[in-house]
Amino acid sequence: MQKFSIKEQFFTKKNIYRFILSSILIIILVISLFFFFWKKNTVRRMFIFPSVSGELIIEYRNLDKNPVQGEVQYFIDEVLLGSQLERTKKLFTYGTKVLSCFQREEQLYLDLSADLLQMGDNVIDIKEGFDILRLNITKNFSDIQKINFFVDGKYAY
Which helix (H) or strand (E) holds 47? Predict the structure, then answer.
Protein backbone atom coordinates (compact mmCIF):
# COMPACT_ATOMS: atom_id res chain seq x y z
CA MET A 1 0.00 0.00 0.00
CA GLN A 2 1.14 3.40 -0.85
CA LYS A 3 0.59 6.34 1.42
CA PHE A 4 -0.38 9.63 -0.15
CA SER A 5 0.00 12.89 1.55
CA ILE A 6 -2.87 15.37 1.68
CA LYS A 7 -1.16 17.56 -0.92
CA GLU A 8 -0.93 14.70 -3.38
CA GLN A 9 -4.57 13.75 -2.83
CA PHE A 10 -5.80 17.33 -3.27
CA PHE A 11 -3.74 18.28 -6.29
CA THR A 12 -5.00 15.63 -8.65
CA LYS A 13 -6.20 16.79 -12.08
CA LYS A 14 -9.82 16.11 -11.19
CA ASN A 15 -9.69 18.19 -7.99
CA ILE A 16 -7.84 21.09 -9.61
CA TYR A 17 -10.51 21.36 -12.31
CA ARG A 18 -13.23 21.29 -9.65
CA PHE A 19 -11.44 23.97 -7.66
CA ILE A 20 -11.00 26.25 -10.69
CA LEU A 21 -14.60 25.77 -11.81
CA SER A 22 -16.03 26.42 -8.34
CA SER A 23 -13.81 29.51 -7.95
CA ILE A 24 -15.07 30.93 -11.27
CA LEU A 25 -18.68 30.25 -10.27
CA ILE A 26 -18.22 31.95 -6.89
CA ILE A 27 -16.64 35.01 -8.55
CA ILE A 28 -19.51 35.22 -11.07
CA LEU A 29 -22.03 34.92 -8.22
CA VAL A 30 -20.36 37.71 -6.23
CA ILE A 31 -20.23 40.01 -9.28
CA SER A 32 -23.89 39.26 -10.11
CA LEU A 33 -25.02 40.03 -6.57
CA PHE A 34 -23.03 43.26 -6.60
CA PHE A 35 -24.76 44.49 -9.78
CA PHE A 36 -28.17 43.25 -8.58
CA PHE A 37 -28.04 45.18 -5.32
CA TRP A 38 -26.05 48.15 -6.60
CA LYS A 39 -28.20 51.26 -6.54
CA LYS A 40 -28.83 52.39 -10.08
CA ASN A 41 -28.99 56.01 -11.13
CA THR A 42 -32.59 55.71 -12.32
CA VAL A 43 -36.00 56.64 -11.03
CA ARG A 44 -39.26 54.84 -11.79
CA ARG A 45 -41.90 57.04 -13.44
CA MET A 46 -45.55 56.40 -14.22
CA PHE A 47 -46.85 57.24 -17.68
CA ILE A 48 -50.54 57.53 -18.55
CA PHE A 49 -51.63 57.16 -22.17
CA PRO A 50 -55.04 56.90 -23.87
CA SER A 51 -55.88 53.57 -25.44
CA VAL A 52 -57.70 52.95 -28.68
CA SER A 53 -60.74 51.78 -26.67
CA GLY A 54 -60.93 55.11 -24.80
CA GLU A 55 -59.52 53.95 -21.47
CA LEU A 56 -56.32 55.21 -19.86
CA ILE A 57 -53.36 52.86 -19.76
CA ILE A 58 -50.61 53.11 -17.15
CA GLU A 59 -47.05 52.29 -18.12
CA TYR A 60 -43.93 52.38 -15.95
CA ARG A 61 -40.43 53.26 -17.13
CA ASN A 62 -37.09 53.74 -15.42
CA LEU A 63 -35.64 57.12 -16.34
CA ASP A 64 -32.27 58.69 -15.63
CA LYS A 65 -32.20 60.66 -12.36
CA ASN A 66 -29.93 63.43 -13.63
CA PRO A 67 -30.60 64.08 -17.32
CA VAL A 68 -28.97 67.00 -19.08
CA GLN A 69 -32.24 68.82 -19.85
CA GLY A 70 -33.65 68.39 -16.33
CA GLU A 71 -35.96 65.79 -14.83
CA VAL A 72 -39.25 67.42 -15.80
CA GLN A 73 -38.35 68.16 -19.42
CA TYR A 74 -36.85 64.68 -19.83
CA PHE A 75 -40.11 63.19 -18.54
CA ILE A 76 -42.19 65.37 -20.90
CA ASP A 77 -39.96 64.39 -23.84
CA GLU A 78 -40.67 60.74 -23.02
CA VAL A 79 -44.43 61.39 -22.80
CA LEU A 80 -44.36 63.10 -26.20
CA LEU A 81 -42.63 60.08 -27.73
CA GLY A 82 -45.68 58.01 -26.84
CA SER A 83 -46.33 54.65 -25.30
CA GLN A 84 -44.22 51.56 -25.77
CA LEU A 85 -47.38 49.46 -25.67
CA GLU A 86 -49.56 48.61 -28.63
CA ARG A 87 -53.10 49.90 -29.11
CA THR A 88 -52.48 53.29 -27.52
CA LYS A 89 -52.90 56.74 -28.99
CA LYS A 90 -50.43 59.61 -28.95
CA LEU A 91 -51.17 62.80 -27.01
CA PHE A 92 -50.03 65.06 -29.86
CA THR A 93 -48.97 64.61 -33.47
CA TYR A 94 -45.57 63.23 -34.33
CA GLY A 95 -42.88 65.91 -34.30
CA THR A 96 -44.20 67.87 -31.31
CA LYS A 97 -41.22 69.08 -29.28
CA VAL A 98 -40.58 70.96 -26.07
CA LEU A 99 -39.39 74.46 -26.97
CA SER A 100 -38.90 75.52 -23.36
CA CYS A 101 -39.67 74.12 -19.96
CA PHE A 102 -38.90 75.74 -16.64
CA GLN A 103 -40.28 75.76 -13.14
CA ARG A 104 -40.70 78.67 -10.76
CA GLU A 105 -41.72 77.61 -7.29
CA GLU A 106 -44.88 75.51 -7.78
CA GLN A 107 -45.59 76.58 -11.39
CA LEU A 108 -44.37 74.93 -14.55
CA TYR A 109 -44.12 76.89 -17.79
CA LEU A 110 -44.19 74.57 -20.79
CA ASP A 111 -43.89 75.77 -24.38
CA LEU A 112 -44.55 73.14 -27.06
CA SER A 113 -43.95 73.42 -30.81
CA ALA A 114 -46.78 74.29 -33.20
CA ASP A 115 -46.61 70.76 -34.64
CA LEU A 116 -49.19 69.71 -32.07
CA LEU A 117 -51.85 71.82 -33.83
CA GLN A 118 -51.89 69.43 -36.79
CA MET A 119 -54.21 66.46 -36.57
CA GLY A 120 -52.93 63.02 -37.41
CA ASP A 121 -53.81 59.36 -37.26
CA ASN A 122 -54.00 57.73 -33.85
CA VAL A 123 -53.89 61.09 -32.02
CA ILE A 124 -56.45 62.30 -29.46
CA ASP A 125 -58.08 65.74 -29.31
CA ILE A 126 -55.66 68.56 -28.42
CA LYS A 127 -57.53 69.58 -25.25
CA GLU A 128 -57.56 65.94 -24.06
CA GLY A 129 -53.86 65.74 -24.84
CA PHE A 130 -53.16 68.73 -22.59
CA ASP A 131 -55.33 67.23 -19.84
CA ILE A 132 -53.50 63.88 -19.95
CA LEU A 133 -50.12 65.63 -20.11
CA ARG A 134 -51.13 67.67 -17.04
CA LEU A 135 -52.17 64.43 -15.29
CA ASN A 136 -48.83 62.79 -16.13
CA ILE A 137 -46.82 65.73 -14.80
CA THR A 138 -48.79 66.19 -11.55
CA LYS A 139 -48.73 62.45 -10.76
CA ASN A 140 -44.96 62.28 -11.14
CA PHE A 141 -43.91 65.65 -9.73
CA SER A 142 -45.86 66.50 -6.59
CA ASP A 143 -44.13 69.88 -6.19
CA ILE A 144 -45.78 71.19 -9.39
CA GLN A 145 -49.21 72.63 -8.60
CA LYS A 146 -49.96 74.67 -11.72
CA ILE A 147 -48.97 74.15 -15.34
CA ASN A 148 -49.01 76.97 -17.90
CA PHE A 149 -49.14 75.61 -21.44
CA PHE A 150 -47.87 77.60 -24.40
CA VAL A 151 -47.88 76.67 -28.08
CA ASP A 152 -45.13 78.35 -30.07
CA GLY A 153 -44.90 81.13 -27.46
CA LYS A 154 -48.64 81.79 -27.22
CA TYR A 155 -50.66 80.92 -24.14
CA ALA A 156 -52.76 77.80 -24.81
CA TYR A 157 -54.84 76.73 -21.78
Answer: strand 42-50
